[in-house]
Structure formats: C-alpha cells, structure tokens
Design goal:
The protein is of the alpha/beta class. About 35% of the residues lie in helices and about 15% in strands. It has a 5-stranded mixed sheet with strand order 2-1-3-4-5, with helices on one face. Helix 2 links the parallel strand 1 and strand 2. The structure holds zinc ion (ZN). Zinc ion (ZN) binds next to loops.
Length: about 180
C-alpha cells in the first residue's frame, strides 16, 4: 500500500477525486463494513467522491441512540448540511444469525483468558448483547431507521430511509421511505 501510494501521489492521481467536505447529495449513509460493498455500493447507487457522508459498522446497525454512529449522523446534519439519512443493510450479512457462543469460544481460542470475559461480564458488559446480530435484515434496518427517526435531536425536516442491497448484484430493495 505504501509503495502504491507513493506512485499515486507522485502521479497526481488524486486530481480525479478532488472535492470539498460537504456532501453534494446532502445525504449521510450508514451501511455495513462488508468487503463486497466497498466499491459495489457506490457504483450501484451512482455515488461519486464528495457525494455523501458514509458511515459503516458491522451490520449497519444502530442500537443505542447515543452511539458513535448516531453522533456521526447528527454531526453530518448539523455541521455538514446532510438532509437525508439512509440506512442500507444487505443480504447475506455476517451479522445475521451471529452465534455469540461460537464468537466467545473463538475469543478463547485466540488467547483471550476466560477471566477477562468474566471480568467484563462483572463490569456489566454483556458480550452476547454487544455482538448480537439479527435474523431479518429488513427488521434490523427498520429498527435502526426508527431509532434515527425518533431521536430527540433529529430535526423534523430530515428524511430517513431504509434500504437493503444485494451484495452480488447491487440490487436495492426499499424497506421504508422517509
Ligand atoms: Zn454485513
């Protein structure tokens, strides 16, 4: 990556990407960190550099109205002129049907001490809850959209949408339109 980067900068390849930090489409998107979406999602939605604010996490999930994703959305609205929020889950997501028992066993296999897990549990951190996935991507997207729509700090004029993308074809299905 570092070798490539040197050539990229020296060859002024950045010139094709120059833009400012305000989203041209006035939109903030939350989607999943899935590798298949890195290039496919922007292409399938006609998103160019500079068009949107893009937030990602495992599963495109918002659980807590004051988590870092929700803060990112609010900053995009208040500081960066976003007027629409779109949550985009996807088919075949790694966060669907997550088995938290298997996950904690893998942590132990990778050298995490059982005592560490117990200490976290005693500190009130429920790993089963923290890593809980979802069974239905539509329900998960709808749930995240509802948290955004009902947020006490969300201005009334902000539209919040929910979509599901197919990571094979890029096809979008609408869960809910703002
Ligand atoms: Zn995913």
């Amino acid at each position: 990556m570092l070798t490539y980067n040197k050539q990229f900068v020296e060859g002024k390849e950045y010139e094709a990407f120059q833009t400012d930090n305000l989203p041209n489409k006035r939109m903030v998107i939350l989607t999943c960190m899935d590798t298949r979406l890195v290039e496919l999602l922007p292409r399938a939605l006609n998103i160019q550099n500079g068009d949107v604010k893009m937030l990602k996490n495992a599963g495109a999930i918002i659980r807590d109205p004051f988590d870092s994703i929700m803060k990112g959305i609010l900053v995009a609205i208040y500081e960066l002129q976003a007027e629409e929020v779109t949550v985009i889950g996807h088919r075949d997501c790694g966060m669907s049907h997550v088995d938290t028992d298997v996950l904690t066993n893998k942590m132990i296999e990778h050298g995490i001490e059982k005592e560490t897990l117990q200490t976290l549990e005693h500190a009130g951190i429920d790993l089963h809850d923290e890593f809980r996935g979802f069974d239905s991507v539509e329900e998960s997207v709808q749930h995240s959209v509802t948290i955004v729509r009902n947020h006490p700090l969300l201005p009334k004029h902000i539209k919040v949408h929910g979509l599901v993308i197919d990571p094979g074809t890029g096809k979008l299905d609408v869960v809910t339109k703002g």
